[in-house]
């Protein structure tokens, strides 16, 4: 996600963290 804009990263980062916790 490093190549994505900060706005995209701001919502993707927490979403990915939640997904990782759920798995």
TrEMBL record:
This is Uncharacterized protein. It comes from the Eukaryota. It comes from Nymphaea colorata (pocket water lily).
């Amino acid at each position: 996600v490093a190549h994505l804009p900060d706005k995209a990263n701001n919502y993707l980062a927490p979403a990915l963290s939640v997904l990782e916790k759920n798995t």
